[in-house]
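Problem 12. The chain below contains 395 residues. Write out its predicted structure in C-alpha coordinate notation.
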Amino acid sequence: MEQRIGSNPRIEVVDALRGLAVMAIILVHNLEHFIFPVYPAHSPGWLNVLDQGVFNGVFSLFAGKAYAIFALLFGFTFYIQTNNQKRQGKDFGYRFLWRLVLLAGFATLNAAFFPAGDVLLLFVVVGLVLFLTRNWSDKALLVTAVFFLLQPVEWYHYVASLVNPAHQLPDLKVGEMYAEVAESTKSGDFWTFLGCNVTLGQKASLLWAVNAGRFVQTAGLFLLGFYIGRRRFFIPSESNYRFWGKVLIVAAISFAPLYTLKELVVKNDALVQQTVGTAFDMWQKLAFTFVLVASFVLLYSGKNFSRRVNNLRFYGKMSLTNYVTQSIIGAIIYFPFGLYLAPYCGYTVSLCIGICTFLLQVRFSKWWLARHKQGPLEYVWHRWTWWGTDKTKKN
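Solution.
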Protein backbone atom coordinates (compact mmCIF):
# COMPACT_ATOMS: atom_id res chain seq x y z
CA MET A 1 0.00 0.00 0.00
CA GLU A 2 1.46 3.38 -0.97
CA GLN A 3 2.09 5.56 2.04
CA ARG A 4 3.51 8.90 0.99
CA ILE A 5 2.44 12.33 2.09
CA GLY A 6 3.74 14.69 -0.55
CA SER A 7 7.44 13.98 -0.85
CA ASN A 8 7.73 12.47 2.64
CA PRO A 9 8.91 8.85 2.90
CA ARG A 10 6.73 6.07 4.21
CA ILE A 11 5.74 6.56 7.83
CA GLU A 12 7.68 3.77 9.50
CA VAL A 13 5.54 3.55 12.63
CA VAL A 14 2.46 2.82 10.51
CA ASP A 15 4.18 -0.09 8.76
CA ALA A 16 5.35 -1.43 12.12
CA LEU A 17 1.93 -0.96 13.69
CA ARG A 18 0.31 -2.80 10.80
CA GLY A 19 2.88 -5.55 11.26
CA LEU A 20 1.94 -5.76 14.94
CA ALA A 21 -1.73 -6.13 14.00
CA VAL A 22 -1.10 -8.94 11.51
CA MET A 23 1.21 -10.68 13.98
CA ALA A 24 -1.51 -10.51 16.64
CA ILE A 25 -4.07 -11.86 14.17
CA ILE A 26 -1.92 -14.87 13.33
CA LEU A 27 -1.42 -15.69 17.01
CA VAL A 28 -5.15 -15.46 17.78
CA HIS A 29 -6.10 -17.47 14.68
CA ASN A 30 -3.64 -20.21 15.58
CA LEU A 31 -5.10 -20.51 19.07
CA GLU A 32 -8.54 -20.80 17.44
CA HIS A 33 -7.18 -23.32 14.90
CA PHE A 34 -8.51 -20.90 12.29
CA ILE A 35 -12.04 -21.38 13.63
CA PHE A 36 -11.75 -25.18 13.74
CA PRO A 37 -12.35 -25.95 17.45
CA VAL A 38 -10.74 -29.38 17.63
CA TYR A 39 -8.24 -29.85 20.46
CA PRO A 40 -6.55 -32.71 22.37
CA ALA A 41 -9.06 -34.77 24.34
CA HIS A 42 -6.62 -35.40 27.17
CA SER A 43 -3.59 -33.43 28.37
CA PRO A 44 -1.47 -33.47 31.55
CA GLY A 45 -2.73 -31.21 34.33
CA TRP A 46 0.25 -28.87 34.12
CA LEU A 47 -0.29 -28.42 30.39
CA ASN A 48 -3.97 -27.64 30.90
CA VAL A 49 -3.00 -24.88 33.34
CA LEU A 50 -0.41 -23.54 30.90
CA ASP A 51 -2.88 -23.72 28.01
CA GLN A 52 -5.45 -21.72 29.94
CA GLY A 53 -2.86 -19.08 30.80
CA VAL A 54 -1.77 -18.85 27.17
CA PHE A 55 -5.36 -18.54 25.98
CA ASN A 56 -6.27 -15.85 28.52
CA GLY A 57 -3.08 -13.90 27.89
CA VAL A 58 -3.24 -13.85 24.09
CA PHE A 59 -6.97 -13.16 23.92
CA SER A 60 -6.82 -10.43 26.56
CA LEU A 61 -4.04 -8.68 24.66
CA PHE A 62 -5.14 -9.12 21.06
CA ALA A 63 -8.63 -10.55 20.49
CA GLY A 64 -10.85 -7.84 19.02
CA LYS A 65 -7.96 -5.36 19.14
CA ALA A 66 -5.77 -6.57 16.27
CA TYR A 67 -8.64 -6.30 13.80
CA ALA A 68 -9.44 -2.82 15.17
CA ILE A 69 -5.87 -1.63 14.52
CA PHE A 70 -6.07 -3.13 11.03
CA ALA A 71 -9.34 -1.24 10.40
CA LEU A 72 -7.95 2.02 11.76
CA LEU A 73 -4.96 1.79 9.43
CA PHE A 74 -7.23 0.92 6.49
CA GLY A 75 -8.85 4.32 6.93
CA PHE A 76 -5.44 5.96 7.31
CA THR A 77 -4.20 4.38 4.06
CA PHE A 78 -7.32 5.68 2.30
CA TYR A 79 -6.27 9.18 3.38
CA ILE A 80 -2.75 8.68 1.99
CA GLN A 81 -4.08 7.55 -1.37
CA THR A 82 -6.78 10.24 -1.51
CA ASN A 83 -4.34 12.97 -0.54
CA ASN A 84 -1.75 11.89 -3.11
CA GLN A 85 -4.35 12.02 -5.88
CA LYS A 86 -5.81 15.30 -4.66
CA ARG A 87 -2.36 16.90 -4.96
CA GLN A 88 -2.55 16.02 -8.65
CA GLY A 89 -6.05 17.46 -8.97
CA LYS A 90 -7.69 14.03 -9.13
CA ASP A 91 -10.51 12.34 -7.22
CA PHE A 92 -9.42 8.94 -5.89
CA GLY A 93 -12.99 7.95 -4.95
CA TYR A 94 -14.01 5.94 -8.00
CA ARG A 95 -10.60 4.31 -8.30
CA PHE A 96 -11.06 3.32 -4.65
CA LEU A 97 -14.36 1.60 -5.50
CA TRP A 98 -12.50 -0.49 -8.09
CA ARG A 99 -9.83 -1.18 -5.47
CA LEU A 100 -12.56 -2.54 -3.17
CA VAL A 101 -13.75 -4.86 -5.94
CA LEU A 102 -10.20 -6.20 -6.18
CA LEU A 103 -10.07 -6.57 -2.40
CA ALA A 104 -13.18 -8.74 -2.61
CA GLY A 105 -11.13 -11.11 -4.77
CA PHE A 106 -8.39 -11.30 -2.12
CA ALA A 107 -11.08 -11.78 0.52
CA THR A 108 -12.41 -14.75 -1.43
CA LEU A 109 -8.93 -16.23 -1.73
CA ASN A 110 -8.37 -15.93 2.01
CA ALA A 111 -11.85 -17.19 2.90
CA ALA A 112 -11.30 -20.30 0.80
CA PHE A 113 -8.91 -21.48 3.51
CA PHE A 114 -10.56 -19.82 6.49
CA PRO A 115 -13.89 -21.43 7.45
CA ALA A 116 -15.14 -18.44 9.44
CA GLY A 117 -15.26 -16.21 6.40
CA ASP A 118 -12.98 -13.22 6.13
CA VAL A 119 -12.72 -9.74 7.65
CA LEU A 120 -11.51 -8.39 4.29
CA LEU A 121 -15.01 -8.86 2.87
CA LEU A 122 -16.36 -6.81 5.78
CA PHE A 123 -13.81 -4.13 4.83
CA VAL A 124 -15.09 -4.22 1.24
CA VAL A 125 -18.69 -3.64 2.28
CA VAL A 126 -18.01 -1.07 4.99
CA GLY A 127 -15.35 0.61 2.85
CA LEU A 128 -18.18 2.31 0.97
CA VAL A 129 -18.47 4.73 3.90
CA LEU A 130 -15.03 6.11 3.01
CA PHE A 131 -16.11 6.75 -0.57
CA LEU A 132 -19.23 8.57 0.60
CA THR A 133 -17.41 10.75 3.14
CA ARG A 134 -14.18 11.43 1.23
CA ASN A 135 -14.98 15.15 0.77
CA TRP A 136 -16.45 15.79 4.21
CA SER A 137 -14.90 18.22 6.66
CA ASP A 138 -12.66 17.00 9.49
CA LYS A 139 -15.35 17.83 12.03
CA ALA A 140 -18.02 15.90 10.14
CA LEU A 141 -15.70 12.88 9.86
CA LEU A 142 -14.94 12.90 13.59
CA VAL A 143 -18.57 13.32 14.65
CA THR A 144 -19.69 10.49 12.34
CA ALA A 145 -16.86 8.24 13.53
CA VAL A 146 -17.85 8.79 17.16
CA PHE A 147 -21.49 8.12 16.31
CA PHE A 148 -20.61 4.74 14.79
CA LEU A 149 -18.27 3.87 17.65
CA LEU A 150 -21.08 4.45 20.15
CA GLN A 151 -22.70 1.25 18.73
CA PRO A 152 -26.05 2.87 17.79
CA VAL A 153 -27.62 -0.38 16.50
CA GLU A 154 -27.18 -2.12 19.86
CA TRP A 155 -28.63 0.84 21.72
CA TYR A 156 -31.57 1.01 19.32
CA HIS A 157 -32.48 -2.61 20.08
CA TYR A 158 -32.08 -2.06 23.82
CA VAL A 159 -34.33 1.03 23.87
CA ALA A 160 -36.85 -0.76 21.62
CA SER A 161 -36.98 -3.62 24.15
CA LEU A 162 -37.74 -1.12 26.93
CA VAL A 163 -40.56 0.43 24.91
CA ASN A 164 -41.87 -2.94 23.73
CA PRO A 165 -40.97 -5.91 26.00
CA ALA A 166 -41.86 -8.26 23.12
CA HIS A 167 -39.09 -6.80 20.94
CA GLN A 168 -36.59 -9.43 19.83
CA LEU A 169 -33.26 -9.26 18.05
CA PRO A 170 -33.37 -10.63 14.49
CA ASP A 171 -32.31 -14.27 14.32
CA LEU A 172 -29.66 -14.37 11.59
CA LYS A 173 -29.06 -18.14 11.94
CA VAL A 174 -25.31 -17.61 12.29
CA GLY A 175 -24.87 -20.61 14.58
CA GLU A 176 -26.53 -22.96 12.11
CA MET A 177 -24.38 -21.62 9.26
CA TYR A 178 -21.15 -22.10 11.19
CA ALA A 179 -22.23 -25.63 12.16
CA GLU A 180 -22.67 -26.48 8.48
CA VAL A 181 -19.30 -24.94 7.63
CA ALA A 182 -17.69 -26.97 10.42
CA GLU A 183 -19.15 -30.18 9.00
CA SER A 184 -17.71 -29.42 5.57
CA THR A 185 -14.31 -28.85 7.20
CA LYS A 186 -14.51 -32.15 9.10
CA SER A 187 -15.37 -34.01 5.92
CA GLY A 188 -11.80 -33.64 4.72
CA ASP A 189 -12.92 -33.17 1.12
CA PHE A 190 -10.84 -30.28 -0.22
CA TRP A 191 -13.25 -29.03 -2.88
CA THR A 192 -16.29 -29.22 -0.58
CA PHE A 193 -14.25 -27.33 1.99
CA LEU A 194 -13.36 -24.55 -0.46
CA GLY A 195 -16.84 -24.24 -1.90
CA CYS A 196 -18.56 -24.01 1.48
CA ASN A 197 -16.04 -21.50 2.79
CA VAL A 198 -16.35 -18.98 -0.04
CA THR A 199 -20.16 -19.12 -0.02
CA LEU A 200 -21.75 -20.01 3.30
CA GLY A 201 -18.64 -19.16 5.31
CA GLN A 202 -18.49 -15.64 3.92
CA LYS A 203 -22.21 -15.12 4.52
CA ALA A 204 -21.90 -16.37 8.10
CA SER A 205 -18.92 -14.07 8.70
CA LEU A 206 -20.78 -10.96 7.56
CA LEU A 207 -23.87 -11.80 9.60
CA TRP A 208 -21.72 -12.60 12.64
CA ALA A 209 -20.18 -9.13 12.28
CA VAL A 210 -23.70 -7.68 12.44
CA ASN A 211 -24.46 -9.59 15.65
CA ALA A 212 -21.10 -8.72 17.18
CA GLY A 213 -21.41 -5.00 16.54
CA ARG A 214 -18.44 -4.97 14.19
CA PHE A 215 -20.22 -3.47 11.18
CA VAL A 216 -20.74 -0.06 12.76
CA GLN A 217 -17.50 -0.20 14.75
CA THR A 218 -15.52 -0.90 11.57
CA ALA A 219 -17.17 2.11 9.88
CA GLY A 220 -16.20 4.24 12.87
CA LEU A 221 -12.61 2.98 12.83
CA PHE A 222 -12.30 3.61 9.09
CA LEU A 223 -13.44 7.21 9.52
CA LEU A 224 -11.26 7.69 12.58
CA GLY A 225 -8.22 6.44 10.66
CA PHE A 226 -9.14 8.81 7.81
CA TYR A 227 -9.39 11.67 10.32
CA ILE A 228 -6.04 10.76 11.95
CA GLY A 229 -4.46 10.86 8.49
CA ARG A 230 -5.87 14.28 7.75
CA ARG A 231 -4.62 15.61 11.07
CA ARG A 232 -1.23 13.96 10.41
CA PHE A 233 -1.06 12.47 13.90
CA PHE A 234 1.28 9.65 12.82
CA ILE A 235 3.93 12.10 11.61
CA PRO A 236 6.81 12.13 14.14
CA SER A 237 6.72 15.42 16.08
CA GLU A 238 6.70 16.59 19.68
CA SER A 239 3.13 17.87 19.41
CA ASN A 240 1.93 14.52 18.06
CA TYR A 241 3.74 12.63 20.81
CA ARG A 242 1.91 14.81 23.33
CA PHE A 243 -1.34 13.95 21.56
CA TRP A 244 -0.66 10.21 21.77
CA GLY A 245 0.33 10.63 25.41
CA LYS A 246 -3.11 12.11 26.13
CA VAL A 247 -4.77 9.31 24.14
CA LEU A 248 -2.88 6.74 26.23
CA ILE A 249 -3.96 8.33 29.51
CA VAL A 250 -7.63 8.60 28.53
CA ALA A 251 -7.75 5.08 27.07
CA ALA A 252 -6.00 3.54 30.08
CA ILE A 253 -8.29 5.29 32.55
CA SER A 254 -11.39 4.31 30.53
CA PHE A 255 -10.52 0.64 30.11
CA ALA A 256 -11.00 -0.61 33.69
CA PRO A 257 -14.50 0.85 34.31
CA LEU A 258 -15.68 -0.18 30.84
CA TYR A 259 -14.42 -3.72 31.39
CA THR A 260 -16.09 -3.85 34.82
CA LEU A 261 -19.38 -2.60 33.41
CA LYS A 262 -19.19 -5.19 30.64
CA GLU A 263 -18.70 -7.96 33.22
CA LEU A 264 -21.70 -6.70 35.22
CA VAL A 265 -23.93 -6.44 32.16
CA VAL A 266 -23.28 -10.02 31.01
CA LYS A 267 -25.00 -11.23 34.17
CA ASN A 268 -28.34 -9.90 32.85
CA ASP A 269 -30.79 -11.58 30.48
CA ALA A 270 -29.84 -12.53 26.94
CA LEU A 271 -31.23 -9.45 25.20
CA VAL A 272 -29.37 -7.07 27.53
CA GLN A 273 -26.18 -9.10 27.03
CA GLN A 274 -26.53 -8.92 23.26
CA THR A 275 -27.24 -5.17 23.20
CA VAL A 276 -25.80 -3.24 26.14
CA GLY A 277 -23.32 -6.04 26.80
CA THR A 278 -22.07 -5.91 23.21
CA ALA A 279 -21.72 -2.11 23.37
CA PHE A 280 -19.64 -2.19 26.55
CA ASP A 281 -17.58 -5.09 25.23
CA MET A 282 -16.76 -3.17 22.06
CA TRP A 283 -15.93 -0.05 24.09
CA GLN A 284 -13.57 -1.79 26.47
CA LYS A 285 -11.80 -3.46 23.55
CA LEU A 286 -11.62 -0.12 21.76
CA ALA A 287 -10.09 1.51 24.84
CA PHE A 288 -7.47 -1.23 25.06
CA THR A 289 -6.84 -0.93 21.32
CA PHE A 290 -5.87 2.70 21.81
CA VAL A 291 -3.71 1.77 24.79
CA LEU A 292 -1.81 -0.52 22.40
CA VAL A 293 -1.67 2.01 19.53
CA ALA A 294 -0.66 4.99 21.66
CA SER A 295 1.91 2.97 23.61
CA PHE A 296 3.41 1.61 20.41
CA VAL A 297 3.64 5.03 18.75
CA LEU A 298 5.30 6.55 21.81
CA LEU A 299 7.71 3.67 22.30
CA TYR A 300 8.57 3.66 18.60
CA SER A 301 9.87 7.21 18.93
CA GLY A 302 12.79 5.75 20.90
CA LYS A 303 15.70 4.30 18.94
CA ASN A 304 16.11 1.18 21.10
CA PHE A 305 12.48 0.10 20.79
CA SER A 306 12.21 0.91 17.07
CA ARG A 307 15.37 -1.09 16.43
CA ARG A 308 14.07 -4.08 18.41
CA VAL A 309 10.77 -4.20 16.53
CA ASN A 310 12.26 -3.23 13.18
CA ASN A 311 11.20 -6.54 11.60
CA LEU A 312 7.56 -5.56 12.07
CA ARG A 313 8.05 -2.88 9.40
CA PHE A 314 8.87 -5.48 6.76
CA TYR A 315 6.02 -7.66 7.96
CA GLY A 316 3.60 -4.73 7.82
CA LYS A 317 4.67 -3.69 4.32
CA MET A 318 3.50 -7.12 3.15
CA SER A 319 0.41 -7.24 5.37
CA LEU A 320 -1.97 -8.48 2.66
CA THR A 321 0.39 -11.24 1.51
CA ASN A 322 1.13 -12.33 5.07
CA TYR A 323 -2.53 -12.18 6.10
CA VAL A 324 -3.66 -14.43 3.25
CA THR A 325 -0.76 -16.88 3.41
CA GLN A 326 -1.18 -17.39 7.15
CA SER A 327 -4.66 -18.78 6.47
CA ILE A 328 -3.33 -21.15 3.81
CA ILE A 329 -0.55 -22.33 6.12
CA GLY A 330 -2.95 -22.72 9.04
CA ALA A 331 -5.42 -24.73 6.96
CA ILE A 332 -2.70 -27.12 5.84
CA ILE A 333 -1.49 -27.59 9.42
CA TYR A 334 -4.78 -28.01 11.27
CA PHE A 335 -7.50 -29.19 8.90
CA PRO A 336 -8.44 -32.76 7.86
CA PHE A 337 -7.57 -32.23 4.18
CA GLY A 338 -4.01 -31.34 5.29
CA LEU A 339 -1.83 -32.57 8.13
CA TYR A 340 -4.79 -32.56 10.57
CA LEU A 341 -2.72 -31.62 13.61
CA ALA A 342 -5.62 -29.87 15.36
CA PRO A 343 -6.42 -32.83 17.69
CA TYR A 344 -2.80 -32.81 18.89
CA CYS A 345 -2.34 -29.07 19.41
CA GLY A 346 -3.51 -27.38 22.58
CA TYR A 347 -3.26 -23.62 23.03
CA THR A 348 0.43 -23.64 24.00
CA VAL A 349 1.52 -25.77 21.05
CA SER A 350 -0.70 -23.74 18.73
CA LEU A 351 0.89 -20.52 19.98
CA CYS A 352 4.34 -21.94 19.23
CA ILE A 353 3.19 -22.85 15.72
CA GLY A 354 1.85 -19.31 15.28
CA ILE A 355 5.13 -17.78 16.43
CA CYS A 356 7.13 -20.02 14.09
CA THR A 357 4.86 -19.13 11.17
CA PHE A 358 5.24 -15.45 11.99
CA LEU A 359 9.05 -15.71 12.10
CA LEU A 360 9.12 -17.56 8.78
CA GLN A 361 6.88 -14.91 7.21
CA VAL A 362 9.11 -12.14 8.57
CA ARG A 363 12.16 -13.80 7.03
CA PHE A 364 10.38 -14.19 3.71
CA SER A 365 9.16 -10.57 3.84
CA LYS A 366 12.70 -9.26 4.37
CA TRP A 367 14.04 -11.45 1.58
CA TRP A 368 11.30 -10.41 -0.85
CA LEU A 369 11.45 -6.68 -0.07
CA ALA A 370 15.21 -6.70 -0.58
CA ARG A 371 14.43 -7.54 -4.21
CA HIS A 372 11.03 -5.93 -4.83
CA LYS A 373 9.26 -2.70 -3.84
CA GLN A 374 6.07 -4.48 -2.74
CA GLY A 375 4.88 -7.86 -1.59
CA PRO A 376 3.42 -10.27 -4.20
CA LEU A 377 -0.26 -9.58 -3.47
CA GLU A 378 0.43 -5.91 -2.75
CA TYR A 379 2.00 -5.62 -6.20
CA VAL A 380 -0.99 -7.29 -7.87
CA TRP A 381 -3.42 -5.05 -5.96
CA HIS A 382 -1.46 -1.92 -6.89
CA ARG A 383 -1.00 -2.98 -10.51
CA TRP A 384 -4.66 -3.78 -11.04
CA THR A 385 -5.85 -0.71 -9.12
CA TRP A 386 -4.10 1.53 -11.64
CA TRP A 387 -4.73 -0.63 -14.68
CA GLY A 388 -4.78 1.46 -17.85
CA THR A 389 -3.10 4.50 -16.30
CA ASP A 390 0.40 5.94 -16.40
CA LYS A 391 1.01 4.49 -12.92
CA THR A 392 0.82 0.97 -14.37
CA LYS A 393 3.43 1.76 -16.97
CA LYS A 394 5.83 3.17 -14.39
CA ASN A 395 5.70 0.13 -12.08
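Discussion. Confidence is low (pLDDT under 50) at residues 1-8. Students who got a different answer should revisit the alignment rule from Section 12.3.
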